[in-house]
Amino acid sequence: MIIILRKDAQAESVRRLEDALKAKGISPNHIEGANQNIIGLVGDTSVVDVDNVLAQDCVESVRRVQEPYKKANRKFHPDDTVISVKDKHIGSGSLQIMAGPCSVENEKQIISTAVACKEAGATMLRGGAFKPRTSPYSFQGLEGEGIKLLLKAKQETGMPIVTEIMSIADLDLFADVDVIQVGARNMQNFKLLKALGQCDKPILLKRGLANTLEELLMSAEYIMAGGNMNVILCERGIRTFETMTRNTLDISAVPLLKQKSHLPVCVDPSHATGIVSLIESMSLASVAAGADALEIEVHCDPKSALSDGGQQLTPDKFAEIMKKVKSLAEYFGRTMG
Questions:
Q1: How many CB atoms lie under 10 A from the CB of residue 9?
Q2: 334 with 326: CB under 8 angstroms?
Q3: Strand-strand pairing, 2-5 and 59-63
Q4: In whole angstroms, what is the distance from residue 216 CA to residue 228 CA?
Q5: How does DSSP classify residue 311?
Q6: How many beta carbons lie within 10 A of that of residue 134, not counting itself?
């Protein structure tokens, strides 16, 4: 990181800034140029609050010469991270399929859907117990009871379960959940991320509706800084000017994230467009782009679903798509599961 000083910067003000940086373990190197004076910083600059530095009256601007995320950065961890979920591995070159309904509605619905998903090739069961909805009048999920039903489906099928957390207060309910999902709306809920950094479970971290890839990686850094290195990055579409789809799936995010980070990458083609007829093509594109996992919504009766019925596949359609996904994965030398 480089701090560019104002031409009229007072020596005492610069000294106070340098002392503050030293207190954080940073070594400031003052360099005087013919037209401009700068301070070059050596050390872990992730601890530096850029906004606070910019607020100093001696500072003109701040420039980073290296990404602010360290633990998620491939430069410092060149080998791919492989995350184990029971007997499944994410990031090992295989392709994991997380499938299931948007919302857990009742015991019959979740178990029948789970069984159908496993028969079609799913390796993990996803299902919403807590549902963040745009409207306060929409179905909000069964919450704790929903997790109990997911655990029954897990017992029936043997598949690990993936479900979303919305509040630190509910963390104890997730004791037997295999993968904790952080939804797009909570990607920058930093208190929640810090709490998840203290647990030992894999975290599926979804990109926010309008967040950059660097912001996604910085959110992963929050979790990893707490000691939990088991983070799966998830691209689920971002909000753009396009109105024909629910969101715009950023396929380029997959190879870019894998270049920038060692963490495995998942794609959610269901939320990416919100249109069931596009899930097949988006799934295949994600596999071709190098995704380590797919998260797909499946419901035994989408027309009667309590949430997002328009983006949920029937089990038969899901099975049809899985055959094509498996074929494409094998073409690239990968296996499913």
A1: 17
A2: no
A3: antiparallel
A4: 16
A5: G
A6: 7
- Please tell me the predicted confidence (pLDDT) of residue 181: 98
Distance, in Å, from the CA atom of 152 to the CA atom of 158, rounded to the nearest integer, reads 10
The answer to pTM > 0.70 is yes
The length of the chain is 337
The amino acid that residue 13 corresponds to is S
DSSP reduced 3-state for 261: strand
What would the pLDDT profile of 280-306 be if each residue is shown by its tens digit?
999 999 999 999 999 999 999 999 888
* Terminal-residue alpha carbon distance, the chain: 42
Question: How big is the CA angle at 256 (ends 254 and 258), to the nearest 5 degrees?
Answer: 70
Which residues face 294 on adjacent strands? 97, 267
Structure confidence at residue 63 (pLDDT): 86
Residue 86 has pLDDT above 70, yes or no: yes
Phi-psi region of 317 (alpha: psi -120 to 50; beta: other; left: phi over 0): alpha
Distance between CA atoms of residues 69 and 76, nearest Å: 10
> Which DSSP letter does residue 208 get?
P
E strands of 166-273, at which residues? Answer: 179-182, 203-206, 231-235, 265-267
9, 67, 208, 194: CA torsion to nearest 10: -90
- Supply the pLDDT for residue 30: 84
Say what the alpha-carbon torsion angle 98, 100, 105, 109 is, to the nearest 10 degrees: -140
